[in-house]
Amino acid sequence: MLSLVIPAYNERNRIGRTIVEYRDTLRKNGIDFEIIVEMDGCTDGTQEVVKRLSERIPELRYIEFDRRLGKGRGLKEGFKVTRGDIVGFVDADGSVPPQEFVRMVRELEKGYDVVIASRRAKGAKVRNQPTVRRILSKCFNIYVRTLFGIPYRDTQCGAKVFRRYVLEKVFEGLNSNGFAFDVNLLYLVHRAGFRVKELGVEWTDMYGSKVNVPKAVVEMGLDVLRLRLYHSPLRPLIWRRRG
User: Which of 8, 159, 211, 227 sits at 20 to 30 Å (Cα–Cα) from 205?
Assistant: First the structure.
């Protein structure tokens, strides 16, 4: 079974469409699945939308928190309640269409442990992404690859799927609560030697993003640097044990 986690922060206007489109596509492709929506301190009525849908969609479950946890922490909480032997996550805005996610699941059947969506791998189609965001994204990827020595051309595309044993192996090392979570995950996966497929997908920059790009770039840069220091010989000097 596939367990699909969708983290959501104030996505009232989009979460319903995303859930229904993914449900319909997964059913159409004969995939046994569950969808788990993690509502991360929402204040706009996202909860009401998800709860109404859960009454008529048996595959849908949800967890909710009164305060913001951040993308990484929210996903970890979602992972804790998954039941499938395959686990994945997608962004709530539907930037990666459900049929593309099905392609990712099918790639696992070819012997991969992890499949990640990519806006830069062969076959990718990117729509509506402003030039400034595209440049910043490329610069961030260079920064990440330089710090961590990982080969992936796009760590931040919001769709990833993996075998449960991968999650069990890396879960305790997932200590990034924010948007650096994807880097954290892929670094641990790479270091553990799992077989990863970076799959070019169709991706659309959706209007109404909650991300403040300049602020996010600075925060992500600092988060990634802290992550690199955490996984370095300097760790004992920076993170001293208390007590």
Answer: 227
25-57: per-residue pLDDT in tens? 999 999 999 999 999 999 999 999 999 999 999
Give how far the C-alpha of residue 47 lies from the chain's centroid of Cα atoms, to the nearest Å.
20
The whole-model pTM stands at 0.91
Q: What is the DSSP string of the chain?
A: -EEEEEEESS-TTTHHHHHHHHHHHHHHTT--EEEEEEEES--SSHHHHHHHHHTT-TTEEEEEESS---HHHHHHHHHHT---SEEEEE-TT--S-HHHHHHHHHHHTTT-SEEEEESSSTT-EEES--HHHHHHHHHHHHHHHHHH----S-S--SEEEEEHHHHHHHGGG----STTHHHHHHHHHHHHT--EEEEE-EEE--TT----HHHHHHHHHHHHHHHHHHTSTTHHHHSPPP-
Amino acid making up residue 71: K
Q: pLDDT grade, residue 237 (50/70/90)? A: low
Q: Does domain 2-238 have CATH number 3.90.550.10?
A: yes
Sign of the CA dihedral with 12 first, then 182, 98, and 22 last: negative
